[in-house]
């Protein structure tokens, strides 16, 4: 497939989602850090209840895109709309107030604390009365109910996080984000450094969240095969741009790799003396 066909695929997908209810839309997003352009006119859409897989090698601009969508950075140019309203995300707290949550690779869990304490980290419940005492009973019950609702099974919510497997920790971080009433969930390399069994646990969790409805998901990924198995649609980023976009059912690992190889060859040819 030549480059014109790749962009035709992207145009067709954009047409398909244009009339669908959108959770998020970014139009020609640009981000510059001094003389470095990290994002160069990136446009994307995320339908309500959709899973979008964002693929690309290191330096493609994926992390910068995530930081804009979570309010950590503000774009240099372009516009961002959340639930149909054009919005400039001023901070991470502002993004969270609009229902945008992100689970980063480091998970931001306190390993020495219990599962239920992590579920309510910085959002602890306090008993009514003259003294501000933590309501451990309520937090235990709500944490257990939340995990049960999304099918995450742990021996006890009293267990410290440090005693959990990598897959279980990832599941707790995702559950915490969902428990925060997220409408848009960003997952930064959710399957990184996991074995097949643990990756399967997280894949099942993501698919269950989709089936429950009400949540739109963006996954930042490296693994093409896993992404095509989970996502409704994939978007390939290279050097700060979107170079390909297609429904997962209409593309393949071979096609995506071919696009990346052609870009690599073009870069080598340009840099050759």
From TrEMBL:
PROSITE patterns listed in its UniProt record: ABC_TRANSPORTER_1 (PS00211), ABC_TRANSPORTER_2 (PS50893)
Transmembrane domains' residue ranges: none
Xref: InterPro entries: AAA+_ATPase, ABC_carbohydrate_import_ATPase, ABC_transporter-like_ATP-bd, ABC_transporter-like_CS, P-loop_NTPase
Keyword entries, A-Z: ATP-binding, Cell inner membrane, Cell membrane, Membrane, Nucleotide-binding, Repeat, Sugar transport, Transport
Domain ABC transporter as annotated: residue spans: 24-264
GO molecular function: ATP binding; ATP hydrolysis activity
Protein name listed in UniProt: Monosaccharide ABC transporter ATP-binding protein (CUT2 family)
């Amino acid at each position: 497939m030549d480059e014109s066909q790749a962009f035709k695929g992207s145009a067709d997908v954009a047409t398909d989602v244009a009339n669908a209810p959108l959770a998020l839309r970014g139009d020609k997003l640009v981000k510059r850090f001094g003389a470095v352009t990290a994002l160069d006119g990136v446009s994307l859409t995320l339908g309500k209840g959709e899973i979008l897989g964002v693929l690309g090698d290191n330096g493609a601009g994926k992390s910068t895109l995530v930081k804009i969508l979570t309010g950590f950075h503000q774009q240099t140019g372009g516009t961002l709309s959340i639930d149909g309203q054009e919005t400039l995300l001023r901070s991470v707290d502002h993004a969270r107030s609009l229902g945008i949550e992100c689970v980063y690779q480091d998970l931001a869990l306190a390993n020495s604390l219990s599962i239920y304490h992590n579920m309510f980290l910085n959002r602890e419940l306090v008993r009514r009365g003259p003294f501000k005492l933590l309501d451990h009973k309520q937090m235990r019950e709500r944490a257990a109910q939340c995990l049960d609702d999304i099918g995450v099974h742990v021996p006890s919510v009293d267990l410290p996080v440090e005693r959990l497997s990598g897959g279980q920790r990832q599941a707790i971080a995702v559950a915490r984000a969902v428990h925060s009433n997220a409408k848009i969930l960003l997952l930064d390399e959710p399957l990184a450094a996991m074995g097949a069994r643990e990756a399967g646990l997280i894949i099942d969790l993501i698919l269950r969240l989709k089936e429950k409805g009400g949540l739109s998901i963006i996954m930042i990924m490296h693994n093409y095969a896993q992404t095509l198995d989970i996502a409704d649609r994939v978007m390939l980023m290279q050097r700060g741009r979107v170079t390909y976009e297609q429904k997962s059912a209409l593309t393949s690992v071979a096609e995506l790799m071919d696009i990346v190889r052609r870009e690599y060859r073009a870069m080598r040819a340009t840099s050759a003396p």
